[in-house]
Task: inverse folding
């Protein structure tokens, strides 16, 4: 049974500006695993990656019905990819999580659908 759904869209230029002007921005959003991947990327791909993770974590918070802050932190969620490149998200919540991330030159968008693990 679906227990939550969330979607988020972010302008790529906002993420790039934040990353370039706030030294710790990426470290606040990304887990150490994600940060290592981020640092290995070059050019525009680097900001696509960061924007996609930002949107995915915002979408997860919306699906859970909580804000990022007291109940859920950026580092409570980690996004990885399976062997075929499909992204998945881990969190302390007991739900099956379906995640989709996409980008254009100007935007990154992510959608999360949460299912109860007993369905």
Result:
């Amino acid at each position: 049974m679906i227990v939550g759904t969330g979607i988020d869209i972010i302008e790529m230029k906002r993420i790039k500006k934040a990353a370039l002007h706030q030294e710790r921005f990426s470290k606040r959003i990304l887990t150490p695993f994600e940060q290592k991947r981020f640092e290995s990327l070059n050019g525009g791909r680097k900001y696509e990656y960061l924007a996609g993770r930002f949107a995915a974590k915002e979408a997860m918070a919306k699906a859970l019905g909580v804000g990022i802050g007291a109940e859920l932190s950026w580092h409570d969620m980690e996004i990885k990819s399976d062997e075929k490149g499909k992204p998945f998200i881990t969190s302390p919540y007991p739900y099956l999580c379906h995640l989709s991330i996409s980008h254009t030159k100007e935007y990154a968008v992510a959608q999360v659908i949460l299912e109860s693990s007993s369905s």
